[in-house]
Amino acid sequence: MSEAKVVMIDAIMWFRQDLRVADNPALNAALQQGRVLPIYIHDTAAAGEHVVSGASALWLHHALASLEHTLQGHLQFFKGDALQVLNCLCARHNVRHVHWNRCYEPWRIDQDTQIKATLIDSGVTVQSHNGSLLWEPWQVAKPDGKPYRVFTPFYRKGCKSAAPPRSPLSYPYFKAEHQFAAKMDNANTLQSLELTLGKEWETATAKNWKISEIGASEQLDTFLASGLVDYKTGRNIPASANVSRLSPYLHHGLISPHTVWHAVGQQAASVDTEHFLSELGWREFSYYLLFHFPRMTNQNFQANFQGFTWEQDSESLAAWQRGKTGIPIVDAGMRELWQTGYMHNRVRMVVASFLTKNLRQDWRDGAKWFWQTLFDADLANNTASWQWVAGCGADAAPYFRIFNPVTQGGKFDSAGVYTRSLLPELAALPDKYLFAPWLAPAQILKKAGIVLGETYPNPIVDLKASREAALQAYAVLKANMGLNASD
Length: 487
Ligand SMILES: Cc1cc2nc3c(=O)[nH]c(=O)nc-3n(C[C@H](O)[C@H](O)[C@H](O)COP(=O)(O)OP(=O)(O)OC[C@H]3O[C@@H](n4cnc5c(N)ncnc54)[C@H](O)[C@@H]3O)c2cc1C
Prior knowledge:
487 residues, mainly alpha, Rossmann fold, DNA Cyclobutane Dipyrimidine Photolyase, subunit A, domain 3, 3 domains, five-stranded parallel β-sheet, 5% strand, binds flavin-adenine dinucleotide
């Protein structure tokens, strides 16, 4: 960092995945200490392969812009090694206190541990807070003290016997010009972090979202008003508005899980509210697993999968990525992802099963693509979910459960609303053949204006044969069932 004039600062508030003012424990604590320097540090080296990128970086850009606006231009941006940036700021401005909300990615934990030790050594008080999880991973354990590996006992026994999630904090009072440090001359601009590249796809993808703290609240209100009733069944139908679409807001911390938990908990109790809260429980479970088994980001959770031979076929991987597999529900999902930065959960499961089971490609390749293209790309949820579908994760779908994309399409998009909206080239195909156009008689294809192999691809794989081949390949795993990466 270059020279900067000395400014009086009592506390630094280091924003990370908590880009909000409401219910932000670290910000509240910092504000109680006097003049606050609110900062964001873009440290690309420490994150390594898990650096925020693609769609998620675009979301981050807009979320930071919105937070900067809420803080009336006082959010300050820095680039580079976070330890060095914090050290310099503390030394130059004689800062006594640093606050942040905890993150749980393995690289973050390593970095935070090092930063905490270094700053404390130089006389700075460092306080980390819980702004992102309903239960800290170390608060929930089996009676024998070991971590849970199965969701139901984790949630029903472990979480329910721990203290209930705290209520959201009251909105902090601040007068920006008095309470926040003035802009430093060595701070960067948001634009210079290069989180957005000014490409056309960025405008098109972001336009359907209101990326701000207010946007998150409105999204929650809309869901409570019109999505929550019938959530339990409606959440499986990609064309229905029964899901909250809160995942990118939760990942980047534009809303806290406590706010969502209590807002839903205050609605009349029903199977729908209970089911929604349990989905927040799955989010907790993913973070819990990541904390206790950090190697799972790259290694199969179940050790019997080590050495399993995945196919390496870049052509079929590219067809899957671009939504050109010739399997309509898979292509619809992959195009939804590409066009909107989001994919419905039911379809995420179908496309992931197709990649890992019918194409037998490594779940890590799928996870990498999702990391680039999802607005809600989240190391805990993405890793745990991919491993779950591939069959190698904790409490995973059994290896022999292979989603049939034709049946899934017919069952969960029976009127074809979702699929037709994303695959206009198949719009005129009758429902009967929509999910398996290769079975349609020639005259029906002709009437619908479809030439397979030209206007829409032939299937890149035979669903029945690839299912049988996967079952055979996976069968060798049976012998070693029950082991996992932590053993
Ligand atoms: C292969 C695969 C990859 C995934 N990658 C991600 C990812 O990178 N980031 C991500 O946030 N979710 C991921 N998920 C989980 C899930 O699909 C999304 O959280 C959900 O679709 C988000 O939409 P929503 O907010 O409308 O969900 P809702 O149904 O409204 O659920 C509310 C919230 O609960 C949490 N949640 C719901 N389902 C799950 C789940 N299965 N696992 C963990 N948390 C859940 C999310 O925070 C979500 O916002 C993945 C699922 C699969 C099958």
